[in-house]
Sequence to fold (147 residues):
Amino acid sequence: ERILVRWYAWWLYNLTGKKIDPMHTILVSKGYARIFESRIRKTLPDLIIAPAASTEIAFLNTAIPIIYSTDATFRLLDGYYANFSQYPTDVKKEINEIEQRAIQKATHISYPSQWARNSAIYDYGAQPEKISIIPYGANIEPLFPKI
Fold:
């Protein structure tokens, strides 16, 4: 699978000159959907927990509830981090479609900040009632103060 993904990125770059992260493409996302749908049919889980897995769940066809957790949306990362900002417009459009589908597909979403929650709602149309804010790591106050 990884060989095909790398080949696809190499082929696209050599054909068009566009640099992409192949792990965030619709082609790969649809491939993940086929793989995971097969695994789901075999194991019949009660729940799917998908941390930082927008590509993996965007095209997944299942009635099983999906809990999606990530620290930010692509819209927030684009322009904030150089490696997310370098993609051509059409590649960003594809990544945003994956993000949109993952947010809509999820039964519930967990973000560590209001910033990320707001982006899901205002940039991707997420239903506010299906989003929780659960801070990560350093955002949590220590139980015992340092002496």
